Structures are given as C-alpha cells and as structure tokens.
From TrEMBL:
Class of this enzyme: oxidoreductase
Transmembrane regions listed in the UniProt entry: none
Lineage summary: Bacteria, Bacillati, Actinomycetota, Actinomycetes, Kitasatosporales
Domain FAD/NAD(P)-binding: from-to ranges: 3-167
Protein name: ferredoxin--NADP(+) reductase
Organism: Streptomyces liliifuscus
One Pfam family, short name: Pyr_redox_2
Length: 450
C-alpha cells in the first residue's frame, strides 16, 4: 500500500488525488488531501467569481474525487511553521505532493501603492468570496471612481463585480455583508488599464464580452487609443484569441451604446508610475503614456495622464509563497522541480512532489491543472516501488490526532455546507457562505445529520 499526502485541495490537489486513485499501475494507493482551510476546492471556492455559477459548479466534479473510498479530506491542517512541518509530513507518508497554489499578490513597486483606498485584487476577491482570512472591508465606501490596474481575467472579474447590482448578486453565494456593501456601492466609473496594447491583453474573449452585457452599464473604448496598436488596423496576423479580443473592442469603439448609470472604460498603453494622495487616501493614479516597441513590449513617452480614483485595485498577477522546509525559487515564485519531482540543490528530493500554481506559476485556468497534475502523478507512480519500501505509520490520521491535531473531515465539511444552506434560507437567498473562522469551525464541529 502506498500512502500519499496531497497538500492543498484546489484543482491541482484534487486532480492529483484523482490521478492517484484512478490508475491501474499501483494497486492500492490511499490519499489524504490536507488543506489549511476547513473547506475544500481552493480558488474554485475562494477565487472564481460568485456570479460565474457554471464554473463554480465544477466543485461538484471535484467533490466526487474527495468522496472516493480511498481519498480522505483533512481540512484545517496547515502545513508549515504554525502547523504540521514538512519534515513530519514526510515521516507520516510515503510521498507528499504540494499543491498549495500561489497565495499572494504581485506588487507594482510604485510610490503611493500602500495609500488607503489602494488594494490588491487578491484582497477584494477574498472579501467577496468569504475567505476566512479576509480582514478588509469597506472597499467601495465613499468611492465614485475606481481604477483597476492590469488587463487579465482577474481584472475583468474585479471590474464586473464592481459594476454588478443587488439583483444580480443576491442569487450568488457571496457573504451577506459583501452583498450589502456592493449593492449600496457609489462607484459609477471604473477604468481598467493595461500597460500594453489591446492585442496583448491577457483576458479571454468570453470574459471580455461579458462586460458588454452588464445591465445599466456602458462600456467605453477610445478608437484612437486602440489604434496605437499596429495590430488594430490589421489583426489578421494575430493568434485567434487575441484577434477575437481586438474584434470585440473594435465593436465597442465603432458602435458605442451610451446608456446606463455606470461606465466601464477600457484603457491601453498606460503604465502606472505613482498613486497620488488626496485627503489622506488615494485620489488619482498617474500613468505614463507608452507606445509599442515593435518587440511585444512598450516604451515610455514621457507624457503623463492622471486618472481620478478613490479606489484602486492592483490586479497584476499572483505569486507563490515559500513553504518552510521546501526549496523555493524566489525569482519565479515556484518550487523547483523536474516533471513534478521536487529538486533540492538541483537533485531530486525523494518522495516530494509539486503540482498546480506552485509548480508552474500563477497562470492557467482550472483545466490547465489536470495535465499538470497528471505529469506529477506519472512521476510519482514511476517512483512508487522505491517509495513503498519505507516504513510509515499504518494510519497517519491517528498519528496526527496523537499530536493534538483535530482535522475537519468530510462530515465536518458537509456540516459547513448545511450551515451555509440554512443561512441562505434564513436570508431569503440560496446558499450564503460563512465568512469567518469562528462560524466555519462551529459549523464543522456540529456534525449531527440534518
Ligand atoms: C481570482 C481568480 C479567479 C479565477 N477564476 C477562474 C475561472 O473563473 N475559471 C478558471 O478556469 N480558472 C479561474 N482561475 C484560475 C484557477 O483558479 C487556478 O488555475 C487554480 O485554482 C489553481 O489551482 P491550484 O490547486 O494550484 O491552487 P489553489 O486553487 O489556490 O489551491 C491551493 C490550496 O492549497 C491550500 N494551501 C495553501 N497553503 C497551504 C498550507 N501551507 N497548508 C495546507 N494547505 C495549504 C489552500 O488553502 C488552497 O485550498 C481563477 C484564479 C483566480 C486567482
Ligand atoms: N474566467 C476565467 O477563466 C479566469 C478568471 C480569473 C483568472 N483566470 C486565470 O488566472 C490566471 C491569473 O490571472 P491574473 O489576471 O491574475 O493574471 P494575468 O493573466 O497574468 O494578468 C496580469 C495582468 O497584469 C499586468 N501587469 C503585470 N505587472 C504589471 C505592472 N507592473 N504594471 C501594470 N500592469 C502589470 C499584465 O500586463 P502584461 O501582460 O503587460 O505583463 C496583465 O495585464 C490567468 O491564467 C487567468 O486566465 C481565469
């Protein structure tokens, strides 16, 4: 029997567990999927926007893996300095696969970045997704104009959530306080700003197009700004995804529909250089106009534009966090590996593996993690005969309990789900997420059947 710990229950962790139990190569593999949170599914629960119900429903596919007879979910177990050490974990299992994602945000490195009113997209996403570590509140209070820096899919999510009204948000599972705050939001103008051109934006066309369908919201693009991109005049040489983006933007530029009490402006070729204060908080963002350099990058022009904003979201990508006891490449924000096998000082570290964003970096949609996990599982199964020779305790959970850990098992998670359904019913909504550690842990420990 091979006992494997998977650390992290996001898509890469669940796809790894699935790959390990649905193969015919090694007869009996048992997998414990550990997560520091009492709830599974990683960014599918705590990142995917609440109004994207169809993508959220992927949780049902992930659920069937965690309910497999040879897979156990052990929530509320943090691997690292304040929890279970990587070294101890290694003693308890034949192999450990780290699937811990990329938990923090990248920084802009410009003056004024830390002014009140300037937030990372990560903080906003965590708040509207009810992540129990979210401490911030009041994002939109007193803000008329917002700037979102970056033109990736997270920037699109943040922009769209700022423009949504109560009618569209209430059917979602977003926490009640976030719903109330966004429903009362005074934000009327949102500018989403890219430092390069429209043909280099990272958002996908489906997500971009959705902005044009928001009720009571006008989308504005300036044809002259789009035309700074040489590919705008003739997009035929672009890859299909970029060409489609340019065509959607062209449609908005050529057929403006001025209507709605909210406005989203999509801006390009503007590089953030400073956040400017006003009355003790951010009041504007100063951008330098850029121009294409002909090699996919941009150069500054020395001309500047200040965009008024009482609210700024920096949506410039995520970043992996080092995990004590594991090697870490600080320049890439990932764990060095060879086909998923962790490398220590350039050599394979037996029994330690990675998958997902901590392996590849913070790019790719949920499905991208499936082949990534598959590669890691293939490496692990190749190593299995050697790994299985080492003695490990027969039941790692008993060993964890003996050390004072009390994981939230699947029944505990199901109790959280019931509590969220009951909260939703009491508020006249569907399911409403519990937003804090105390209510999650209280619910998890109430494991009586309904
Ligand atoms: C805001 C946002 C929205 C997105 N929306 C979409 C979308 O709509 N559609 C789409 O296809 N893709 C979307 N993505 C991309 C998708 O979410 C990622 O590709 C995917 O979640 C990465 O999977 P992962 O398992 O590597 O990491 P994660 O999903 O981040 O999972 C990591 C897990 O590890 C746990 N963990 C971390 N550290 C520890 C530790 N020390 N001990 C124990 N557990 C730990 C975390 O709690 C978490 O559960 C989105 C990404 C973001 C950031
Ligand atoms: N619905 C969905 O499918 C969905 C939703 C959300 C997220 N995701 C996925 O999750 C992953 C992460 O998304 P993301 O939006 O966080 O990252 P991303 O796709 O990497 O986009 C980051 C954006 O930030 C910009 N940027 C980086 N550094 C900057 C700086 N210093 N100044 C100004 N702009 C800067 C980038 O511009 P440059 O290109 O110029 O560097 C880019 O526009 C992506 O793969 C995404 O597709 C998918």
């Amino acid at each position: 029997m091979l006992q494997v710990a998977v650390v992290g229950s996001g898509p890469s962790g669940v796809y790894t567990a699935q790959g390990l139990v649905q193969q015919g190569q090694v007869p009996e593999v048992r997998v414990d999927v550990l997560d520091r949170l009492p709830c599974p599914y990683g960014l599918v629960r705590y990142g995917v926007a609440p109004d994207h119900e169809k993508i959220k429903s992927l949780q049902n596919n992930l659920r069937t893996v965690l309910e497999h007879e040879r897979v156990r979910f052990l929530g509320g177990v943090r691997v690292g300095p304040d929890g279970l050490s990587a070294a101890r974990l290694r003693e308890l299992y034949h192999a450990v696969v780290y699937c811990v994602g990329a938990a923090t945000d990248r920084h802009l490195g410009v003056p004024g970045e830390e002014l009140p009113g300037s937030w990372s997209a990560t903080e906003f996403v965590s708040w509207y997704s009810a992540h129990p570590d979210s401490l911030s509140d009041g994002f939109v209070v007193g803000a008329r104009a917002a700037v979102v820096i970056g033109v990736g899919n997270v920037a699109v999510d943040v922009t769209r959530m700022l423009a949504r009204g109560a009618a569209e948000l209430s059917p979602t599972d977003m926490p009640q306080a976030a719903l109330a705050a966004l429903a009362a939001s005074p934000v009327r103008e949102i500018q989403m700003v890219g430092r390069r051109g429209p043909s280099q934006a990272r958002f996908t066309t489906k997500e971009l197009r959705e902005l044009g369908g928001l009720p009571d919201t006008e989308v504005v693009v300036d044809p002259a700004e789009l035309a700074l991109d040489p590919a705008y005049a003739d997009p035929s040489g672009l890859p299909a995804a970029q060409r489609r983006n340019v065509e959607v933007l062209r449609g908005w530029a050529e057929n403006p529909h001025p209507s709605g009490t909210r406005r989203i402006r999509l801006r390009f070729f503007l590089r953030p250089v400073e956040l400017l204060p006003h009355a003790g908080r951010v009041g504007a963002v100063r951008f330098e106009r850029t121009l294409p350099d002909g090699r996919g990058g941009v150069t500054g022009t020395g001309r500047f534009e200040d965009i008024e904003a009482q609210l700024v979201f920096r949506s410039v990508g995520y970043r992996g966090v080092p995990l004590e006891g594991l090697p870490f490449d600080t320049s890439l924000g990932t764990v060095p590996h060879l086909a998923g096998r962790v490398l220590r000082d350039g050599s394979v570290s037996p029994g330690e593996y990675v998958a997902g964003w901590i392996k590849r970096g913070p790019t790719g949609v949920i499905g991208t993690n499936r082949p990534c996990a598959k590669e890691t599982v293939t490496s692990l199964l190749e190593d299995a005969p050697t790994l299985a020779r080492r003695d490990v305790p027969p039941d790692p959970l008993a060993a964890l309990r003996a050390e004072g850990l009390d994981p939230v098992e699947w029944e505990g998670w199901q109790a959280i789900e019931r509590a969220e359904a009951a909260l939703g019913a009491s508020l006249g909504r569907h399911v409403v997420k519990l937003p804090d550690w105390q209510s999650l842990m209280e619910a998890a420990r109430t494991t009586d059947a309904p």
